[in-house]
Amino acid sequence: MTYGDQRTYKKVEIIGISKESIEGAINSALHKAHNSLERLSWFEVGEIRGHVGEDGTASEYQVVLKVAFQLK
Amino acid sequence: MTYGDQRTYKKVEIIGISKESIEGAINSALHKAHNSLERLSWFEVGEIRGHVGEDGTASEYQVVLKVAFQLK
Amino acid sequence: MTYGDQRTYKKVEIIGISKESIEGAINSALHKAHNSLERLSWFEVGEIRGHVGEDGTASEYQVVLKVAFQLK
Amino acid sequence: MTYGDQRTYKKVEIIGISKESIEGAINSALHKAHNSLERLSWFEVGEIRGHVGEDGTASEYQVVLKVAFQLK
Amino acid sequence: MTYGDQRTYKKVEIIGISKESIEGAINSALHKAHNSLERLSWFEVGEIRGHVGEDGTASEYQVVLKVAFQLK
Amino acid sequence: MTYGDQRTYKKVEIIGISKESIEGAINSALHKAHNSLERLSWFEVGEIRGHVGEDGTASEYQVVLKVAFQLK
Amino acid sequence: MTYGDQRTYKKVEIIGISKESIEGAINSALHKAHNSLERLSWFEVGEIRGHVGEDGTASEYQVVLKVAFQLK
Amino acid sequence: MTYGDQRTYKKVEIIGISKESIEGAINSALHKAHNSLERLSWFEVGEIRGHVGEDGTASEYQVVLKVAFQLK
Amino acid sequence: MTYGDQRTYKKVEIIGISKESIEGAINSALHKAHNSLERLSWFEVGEIRGHVGEDGTASEYQVVLKVAFQLK
Amino acid sequence: MTYGDQRTYKKVEIIGISKESIEGAINSALHKAHNSLERLSWFEVGEIRGHVGEDGTASEYQVVLKVAFQLK
Amino acid sequence: MTYGDQRTYKKVEIIGISKESIEGAINSALHKAHNSLERLSWFEVGEIRGHVGEDGTASEYQVVLKVAFQLK
Amino acid sequence: MTYGDQRTYKKVEIIGISKESIEGAINSALHKAHNSLERLSWFEVGEIRGHVGEDGTASEYQVVLKVAFQLK
After folding, report:
1. Under a CB-based contact definition with an 8 Å cutoff, are residues C6 and C71 in contact?
2. CB G68 within 8 A of CB C47
3. What is the pTM of this model?
4. Domains (ranges, CATH) in chain E?
5. Phi and psi for G48 in degrees, rounded to 5?
6. Most K CBs within 10 Å: which of L17, L54, L59, as the mutation test of the K interface?
7. Which is the most buried residue in G47, K19, L9, L14, by most CB within 10 A?
8. Nearest-CA neighbor of C3 among K61, F70, H59, E43?
9. Angstrom distance (rounded) from CA E25 to CA C43
10. What is the pLDDT of residues H42-66, one digit of tens each?
11. What ipTM, to 2 d.p.?
């Protein structure tokens, strides 16, 4: 990539979920996005949320991401 | 649905319009989203706007929604 | 109206109130604005607030609107 | 109430739900707050969200409110 | 839980702390909330902050959470 | 207090009022919180508002505070 | 004033300035607004800014207020 | 102008439009404000929006400005 | 277009880039969107960013836009 | 100073503290900035926070300021 | 530059000014930053403001930028 | 440290990067800040972003921090 060249990007908003960690939720979302979109470039974390299990711990982390990819 | 299972969601931004009410505009947007997207799950209201008619009343309500649906 | 033509708009901030509904409060504000301003064009809802009555229900809805009108 | 007199208020955050309307969800939250809190004074709407039913319409409205009440 | 049924939730704001990780701080806050509140449902991360130790590393993570629970 | 030790805090939102000054309104809110809550630690000013008297001066200052206290 | 009665308010944005204090700047703005507007009701502080004098102290406080008044 | 002197400013919100550029839209709004208001002092850009023409280019730029002027 | 008629819009988030100007970056994004989407209607500028070249000038402008188009 | 002349400013973020008042905390921050920076021009108040003493009053005010100064 | 390598960046806040254009103000700020800082990488536009001249046009554009550079 | 004593803090904005985790990126930024600044006290996480690798996972986490340190 050379700065100054004409490029266009699009951002989509994806929510990933993981029982383990925030990073797990991010990678889950990126993995899904990677299946249907090419040229993924960067992500931005929006909200971090989660569900509380019966035992009073985070039973899952939900991370709202914007994922940017280059348009052809 | 069981919390803790791996799921991924995507959010899209839709603007619904109704002459009648804010709820009407929300349902108009959801109806349209329902035509082309499966597994709609929840919505979040962003902006509420509208047009003013000649008689000085709201001639239409415009509601900007984020609609989330589960990716397969 | 033709896009591309030179127009100028001004926005004023009005608070409408209704015992009935949010839409009622919006129309109350627009009605008042319509009395003293011409060429009202659109509105944007800012805050939605209200007063709680003795019986624990919303005794009035207060909606803060920006109302835009075209300057001559 | 006389302005200038010493008063103190507290705000709590409540989420009301209604199948029918945003106003219904607001009143549901206020009703619940009214059961356990005295001297409710005003409310402020934060988020408006909801669930999408199988038929592609809003099956419930969820409204996040701050409810303020006067401390004794 | 069935969507469409009448439920009411309350959110409280708790700050959890952990020497280890952001997830540790979240679980510390949830654990404390679980001791005094029933029916915890979800959490939303607000701020992530921390203290810097003498060795120039994060000696603790402080996470400001909103924790939501269902009112009876 | 030693950083790195496990502590948990809670924040509540209080509105203090004073005829005199913003600091007066802050202290009025803290005083009230101090009556019912132990281990108050810090506060954060949210909104500063007030009422206008008949003579066109601020007849009272209303300050919305978050007050944090340590949970046992 | 009785809640539930139909009222309409307008907000204008005024910047008051004082050499002395934030409260002084607020009252300066209210005083000016009071000269040309009737039925002033409440104010909301937006920004607090100021100028730094040659001696490294605040040579003036500038407070951006929204002032609300009832429309006839 | 001397800092420290008592001055009061008011801000109004104007939307300027230009086919050419963002700066053109700003100057269009300022020009209109200048026709009816004296002692204009500064402006702050809020939103930058625009309309898309049939050829897929920006057929006009719409800039929402706050314009501040000194009250007499 | 007639206000009051039922219409639905969708917004997508596109990032346009130009070596020359902010307007150039906006038009680059709109041009790309125009290739794959019909009935583009308006745009809203989100962030304005850019890259700094070796000579200490903006070697490219990056503008994050929301582009709205009418759904059929 | 003449508007239109080429000038460049830098903003730094400083936190001032005072036992007495918000204005005291602002001046404490400005005084410190004045010791190491020349050509201080204006300040903008960000957060206002503080510590609560054992007696339930504000034992100190902490004000987060941006201080702007002209670069040579 | 290779992604994944350890790098650290710092952001500083600079205000550039130009009589001509927003881009001119951005480049003026970058030019100044370039004189004293090495390895400038990107910028983010914060506020866009300006001064209004006697003739009712923008006599200068003031752009608040964050400029990021790589630490050695 | 004793609350109530006169202290002044400064905040700087640093971006840390790690291939492993958000906490790794925070510590990378703190480590760098620790090399050139004394009396680091606390940090606040701003944005969390990252780069997407060819395999569709987060190839690095980028965390924008404000780091506060006490001025002498």
Report:
1. no
2. no
3. 0.95
4. 9-70 (3.30.1660.10)
5. -120, 120
6. L17
7. L14
8. H59
9. 43
10. 999 999 999 999 999 999 999 999 9
11. 0.95
